[in-house]
What we know:
three-stranded antiparallel sheet, 5 strands
Amino acid sequence: MIAPLSPKDCHLLAHHLPDSPQTVISRAHLLWGTARAYAVGLGDDGFETAVIEDPGCPGKPMIFGRNAQQIADLLSQIPNWFCINVAQDIADELEPLLTARLGCPLRRLADVYHTLTQPPPANLLTHPNVRLLAQEDLPLLTAAPPELRGPNPEHLLQETAVSPSGAAASKTNPACA
């Protein structure tokens, strides 16, 4: 079995991922130290293949890379996955490899990514239920379901902009400033 990446290597991998709707969650969990990640060819110049699982979707890692055989080989060394998210263009080559290894047919599902392509309506930004949470809101956040607050509510308060209704956005994302 391959060992998960160290926190230092997770940070390196996060910086090599492009900024896109498909990578934003993986990048955040790599930087926060909450991802379980594996990589082939990771170095200062980039990586060849990466498998990144965030705690909100156990068993459903995101796969980044262009080499279907390498992806299949890497997945065979990673425990407890049952579904993968991979780019459509590599799925055609990867599917027969995984079908042969697993000995069963695979099912493909489409993934939906919601993106903010224009500024939100101004009235949403002034709504009384949308504000930055403060340290005194920690009990409110801690009482929220785990899938809403994540594994570390204190970190969520310090590193992200969060509305009391539950939507979160990274402080480092210029669209959220």
